[in-house]
Amino acid sequence: MRIIDVRPLADGWTVRSDQIENDLVFLSGRAAECAAMELANRLAKAGTPCEIHIHLRDGSLGGRFLSPALISPEKGAEPRLRDPAIVLEAA
Fold first, then answer.
1. What residue spans of the chain are helical by DSSP H?
2. Which residues contact 88 (CB under 8 A, 6 or more apart)?
3. Are 51 and 43 contacting, i.e. CB atoms less than 8 angstroms apart?
4. Per-residue CA distances from 15 to 9, 23, 31, 73, 84 (Å)
């Protein structure tokens, strides 16, 4: 399970993960969250489950989201989830 962290900076937000070499920096929390979701979706399609942690400006955990790995579809079939996508916690 890969962890993707969205954390506040003094003048923006960062997305961190061991899957990316450098932190991604954004002006808004929304843009950072969208980037984290996109990264999780790409990893899921590659068969890697992820957990996204969203941290608030005060440092507390604002939410955790699970992005399960997708099973490779058979030719012409729709992709299926190994586990249903669920929200683990949300503030």
1. 29-45
2. 51, 64, 65, 66
3. no
4. 10, 6, 10, 29, 24
What is the C-alpha end-to-end distance of the chain, expressed in Å?
22
Instruction: Quote the DSSP letter at residue 39.
Output: H
pTM of the model: 0.73
Amino acid at 52: I
Q: What is the DSSP letter of 1?
A: -
Write out the chain's pLDDT in tens, 91 residues.
899 999 999 999 999 998 788 899 999 999 999 999 999 998 888 888 999 999 999 989 999 998 888 865 555 555 555 444 444 444 4
